[in-house]
Amino acid sequence: MNANSNSLAVRGFPSDLRAFWAVVRREWTVFVRYPSWIVSLLIWPVIFPMGYILTARALSGVDGSGLATFKTSTGLTEYVGYIAVGTMIWMWQNIVLWAVGYSLRNEQLRGTLESNWLSPTWRFSYLLGSSVPQMVSMLLLLAISGLEYVLLFGVKFNGSLWLTLLVILAAIPSVYGLGFAFASVVITVKEANAFVFLVRGIVMIFCGITYPLMLLPGWMQSVAQWLPQTYVIHAMRSAALSTEGFTGISHDLLMMTVFGIFWLAVGYILFVIMERRARQTGAIGQY
Amino acid sequence: MQKIETLSQPSLSSHLRALYALIRKDWKQYWRYPLNAVSSVFQPLIWIAPVYFMGMAFSVNGKAIGFSQYSGTTDFMSFILLGTVLESFINAVFWGMGYALKNDMDSGVMESNWLTPIPRLLILVGHSVTNLLITAITSLGMLLFAGLVFGFHTSGDVMQAMLPIIPMMIGLYGFGFAFAAVVMLIREANTLVDVSSFLVQIFSGSNFPVNALPKFLLPVALALPLTYGLDAVRSLLIGTQTIMPIRLELVLLIVFMFVMLWIGIVTFRSLERRVRTLGTLGQH
Q: What residues pair up with B60 in beta bridges, in sequence order?
């Protein structure tokens, strides 16, 4: 006897697509419902790097003696653009972790996850759908950040716009793949905050958002090589700030592609495992 | 006019019991997620780790000569660590009240809590007490760990440093009351809490001496009472130079304490009344 004979639902590709679109629409409606997102988009790109830039300014000293030491030890001529680009990538990854990583957890907290799970839809669409409005807002954030850095901090983007866009495109799989993997872990372990703090903390310390990696001890430099954000930050600085051209980012692009495939695969596999585990333990509605 | 019949008999002891119940509930909820608790010890360290490595690039043999021209000390890590600890307490009041109300809204208990015969300001204070206790524990852990990793040196008297801390923290409750009322009205806390606490952190000089700010931003820093609090505590504990004579800073802090408490209570009462008139207390 056919197990599905009692079900009225007829699943197919169009129905999965409709479900995916419904999730995208719902997430977008929730997102624009709270107008503070506009404030966030405008304010965060300025205030987040500002803390580090002003600290660097204080470390430079009144007579610039600290800055002279900085130039000697790092080989860099200025720190504002360097810090601005590094912190921008960190913000991107951080927001993805909160928004995509929290999407299923938020459903769990609202008490709608279990009922959604029972609907005859492709379950990965809940995660995929929630990342689309997020991606749109992130592209906006990156564009606004660039504009504000030029206007407020006087950063000179001497690089190429097309190469910068290429870096953003190449970074998407690893940044969002990590978000998917993260969402699946959080729904099982439940302590989302701690995991966000851990992952973004690792990026913050090891990937050199405010300093060149050569300042780190050897073992920390080795860890940094295994993190995709290290390559994203380096490539973005090279593409946006320097005139090195494609050769300056070719190695980073290769590494970003490899890490992108890896993290998307890990994200999907973890989701499948989590889904099976949730059905076996019946714990999906608990929080 | 006939007196409204009520079964409740609010008294000082019933208020204290309510306060205790609130503290117990928040305490229990916090430790229910132990990983979050551990992460709150390391979280501030993660924020300042990039500053440490960046600072080393500006230093010779661990001494930041440029930094001392603004602050009076070459030990930039002790300066920043002390600022981080004080900021944690400041955030505890911000988050403890405004954010706790948002949590109550999301969990759907805000309206029922509001119907109980407990002074509403007491509910806010109750939410902040657990946060302050937890901050004290995590800050101690953080300082011990940071002392080992980055080095932390203090030469002053801790009891003397309480002189600026006490009026600063009491004044902060005024900020917190007003802030919680705004959260109630707009029903969104995350952006408001994050942005405002971050801005306050920057302009009060948590990570750098405020005289390093560009001239046009300096008035913002000088308008914040917290700037004088942080400045005075650092001077008493690690011997940094102050923006103003320390006695004057203490007087300013005491004046700010009364002014902020008054503004906070008046704002809270007025906005809370508005929320009740609008009938949006249970919405989120």
A: B63
